[in-house]
Amino acid sequence: MRAVAAAFVGWLVLAADPGAQDAAPTTRTFTVVATDGRFEPERLDVSRNDLVRITLQSTGAPVSFAIDAYRLMKRAGAGEAVTFAFRADQTGRFPYYCSLSSNSDCRTMRGTLVVADR
């Protein structure tokens, strides 16, 4: 019984050690402005497991923000903004783009999400 209690106390010490667990995720906040057929900024840099919070702002026609690898597509109406968040749980370079076929400027609206390993 004493050995079980000692093992349990050892487990509690490991569980309470902040170094024994991954650090809490960082929240990265961006405002992506869609104007004149482009996104600004055209590159977003984050680390794996960051919580990415984006406000998509349209200065003109309706726009969208899509990242296929994250199965993400958000839309902002003309002159509106929408805020959304996702966990960057995959490392790599992921293109983002406007997916609306009704807006001819969308064909040129591209950017890159870069997710680095911690």
Provide a brief overview of the structure.
This protein is mostly beta strands and 118 residues long. The protein has a single domain (23-116), classed as Immunoglobulin-like, CATH 2.60.40.
Keywords, please?
mainly beta, Immunoglobulin-like, four-stranded mixed sheet, three-stranded mixed sheet, 1 helix, 13% helix
Structure explained in plain terms:
The chain has 118 residues and is mainly β. The protein has a single domain, classed as Immunoglobulin-like (Sandwich), CATH 2.60.40.420. Helix content is 13%, strand content 47%. The strands form three sheets. It has a four-stranded mixed sheet with strand order 2-1-4-7, with no helix packed on it. The chain has a three-stranded mixed sheet with strand order 3-9-8, with no helix packed on it. Strands 5-6 form a two-stranded antiparallel ribbon. The longest helix has 15 residues. It is elongated, with a radius of gyration of 20 Å.
